[in-house]
Amino acid sequence: MRLSCTCEHLSMDTALKPPVFHPTALWPSQVSFPFFSFKTIPTQYLNLIKRPIILRCSNSSTISSTNNSSNNNMAGLPVKKKRKRYRKQYPGESEGITEEMRFVAMRLRNINGKKVTSNSVFDTDTDSENTQGEEEKEGRGDNAETEENNEGVGDGEAETWSPSMEGFLKYLVDSKLIFNTIERIVDESSDVAYAYFRKTGLERSAGLSKDLEWFSQQDFVIPEPSNPGVSYVTYLEELAEKSAPLFLSHFYNIYFSHIAAGQVIVRKVSEQLLEGRELEFYKWKGDVQESLKGVREKLNMLGENWSRDDRNKCLKEATKSFKFLGQIVRLIIL
Length: 334
Prior knowledge:
The structure is a single chain. This protein is mainly alpha-helical and 334 residues long. 51% of the residues lie in helices and 5% in strands.
């Protein structure tokens, strides 16, 4: 490409002017500068030249103030806080583990919304083997298991019992075996937790021994312990070695059940079979409710140090306890 330049002498005013384009006949465009001029590339080639990139600078203080202004605007918006979720408490949890177990007993006592009489308070076909791990059905805990186990248990109406002397003696023998076992375990165990429950005033084995001796003097044949009693005692002995909280759940519920309903059953049977004779089985020295309250307070105190998982297992053991006791009560009518 040929480039031709022409120099021109210009005045000072002209020299300070910006360059201008001069179209000519030979060349499509010509650029004039203050002190010289030269002819440039034809127009068709100028279109191929890329446009220059323009960079702009700004003051950093201006940018900072703009950002601060944006932040201030955002700060004015309401901030939505993430809601903290709290675990739903179990029925009776705020008062202690014994109150939680009482709710378990009440759910077993009330079937399909109808209250069952004391005759059938223990009669439940609870499937206690299907209880592990599912307490972590959140929000339901032991409620779920109890409701499922209550399905199909009776029709909500009181059963009509016809007790027999043979069955009543089996019931007393099995009861003596159970009370003997739990009293022996707490007396002989080296576990500190069991020491709180010695000589509570609730002990029943001595009174049962007197009752069975009286029956023997009346020429009644005292039977050997039956399968329900032996099975329960074996389970209690294994549990006592494995877990104090779980064993104490049974310990408390055995006494609680006898005081709440068991003695009522024994009195009714005694009226029908023994002409109302008062048995030593339901006699206590002092106020039995005060003795039970003392046991309850000690168990609640220990329960405060148990994990929620241990408490859930205790509730399941309470259900098992009522199942075992229900089988023993039913001996009266077999």
